[in-house]
Design goal:
The chain has five helices and six strands, in the order E-H-E-H-E-H-E-H-E-E-H. The chain has a single domain, classed as Flavodoxin domain (Rossmann fold, 3-Layer(aba) Sandwich), CATH 3.40.50.360. With about 180 residues, it is an alpha/beta fold. Strands 1, 2, 3, 4, 5 and 6 form a six-stranded parallel beta sheet that branches. This is NADPH-dependent FMN reductase.
Length: about 180
Amino acid sequence: MKLLGISGTITGSKTRIGTEKVLATVQNSYDDVTTELLDLKDYNVQFCDGRNPLTYTGDTKTVIDQVMSADFYLISTPIYQASLTGALKNLFDLVPPSAFRGKVIGFLATGGTYQHYLVIENQLKPIAGFFRAFVTPSYVYLHDNHFNENREITDLDALSRIDHLAHELVWMQRQLKS
C-alpha cells in the first residue's frame, strides 16, 4: 500500500514538516506501507486549463501520475485568507476525480489563527466528498504556536494528534482493502 503525502503549497515549510511527521510515523510503524512525499514546491505545475489530464507533460504529468498511483492520501495545506492554497486547488483541478474515488484521505492544515481549522471541515472535507473518497474522522491542525523557533513541532497534543492520524489512516485503508 502506498500512502502519498501531499504538501499543497509552494511557500513556507511548516506544512511540509507536519506532512513529513505523519509519513514518518506511518513508515516507522507499518512494514507493509510505503510512503511518498509530493511537495508542490518542488515542481513547476501548469495551471489547469480544462484539457484531458493525460495530455499534460513535464512536472505536471509527473505530479498527476504520482497522485493517480497512490492507494491513499494525507493532504496538507496552509490556510491563507481562510482557504486552502491555490496550488492545492489547482492540483485538485488537474487530477481526474476518479483518482480519489473510494480511497482514504486524511487532512493536515497549518495556520496562524486557531479558527482556521474550520477550513478542513468546511472546504476540504466537502471536496473529498465530491471525489467520493473516505475521510478519516480525525485531522490535524497545526498553529504557529505548535512549532519552536527551529520549526520543530513541540506541542505534545499536536504530536499526539499526528500519531493518531497516522494510525487512523492506515487502519481505515486496511479495513477498506479487506
